[in-house]
Here is the input.
Amino acid sequence: MARKLAKQDSQIDVVDWLRGLPKAELHLHLEGTIKPETLVELSRRHDPEPLTLEGARALYQYENFLGFLMSFKAVTERLRRPEDYELITYNMIRELATQGVVHAEVYVSFGIIYYWKKTEVEPYVEAIERGRERGEKDFNTSVLWIVDAVRHFGVDEGARVFRKAAELKEKYPSIVGIGIGGDEARGPADHFRDLYKEAKAAGLRLTAHAGESVGPESVWSAINIGAERIGHALAAQHDPDLMEVLARKQIPLEINVTSNVRTGCCNGFKEHPVRQYFDSGLMVTLNSDDPPMFGSDLLGEYVLAQDQFGFTMEQMRELAANAVEASFLDPARKLALLQQVEQYG
Ligand SMILES: [Zn+2]
Here is the structure.
């Protein structure tokens, strides 16, 4: 693809340029987009003694991966009613637009709704759709949903989640895919093989978190059950054969650098393989995962990549184009966004 540089890198403000670069976010959890300010608003709705802003911020502190999962739970427990989901969806889109995000594919956890709330999901889907429609109209950022099962809740829970996704997709076309998240060690991808086959037959696109907190075998399993995009794939760096397959098949990787460092899955920015993956010809996309819990956002991930890993501006443009190409958008919108990325000054 022809690349165009309007100005020398040194003459422009890098952060402003990266903000204006049309970006797509492919790995973002709706329940992980709640900023402390929104959590205070939710707490006022539900807690007898509402959280202060400091108290809300404290809930985002943790020491390791399990601590992170516990923090995530503490936040999601304050999501009680469908209106809460509408609020967080609208606020998420507003926040994305300020970073120059033109499209997002967002994980919504039916698993959490079923398992912790023990209730039907459709009123929640109606609510996120209301938030999405208002947000898209007000901020011009498109959103598609990927329905996420919590893998360590087991295959039966997964079946319930994916079958409901297939059913609701007919009524809500913005539901485009499925994924598995949670604790990889307690929920190997292999267990979900038949369910992935069934979801694919129902027209759902397939993603899977893999190689985040366990080894490369988890990424192999995700590929073997048909995952079209891999979330994290941090462990692929330890397996040259896997690296070769990822490069040859151009399987998009949803990389989340800050998340990996903050959860302790990666020891530090210097040790993160994002640059190695890119240089080895892997299909890298940059994403933010659960941004307020990691003190980052997608723009922050782009700034970090440029700053810490020495990607040039043209490589940043390539990363932005990768995310659009790897999205589940219809061909017309995908092409329009790719042109926007290419023509961006
Ligand atoms: Zn994730």
Observations:
- Residues 122-139 form the longest helix (18 residues).
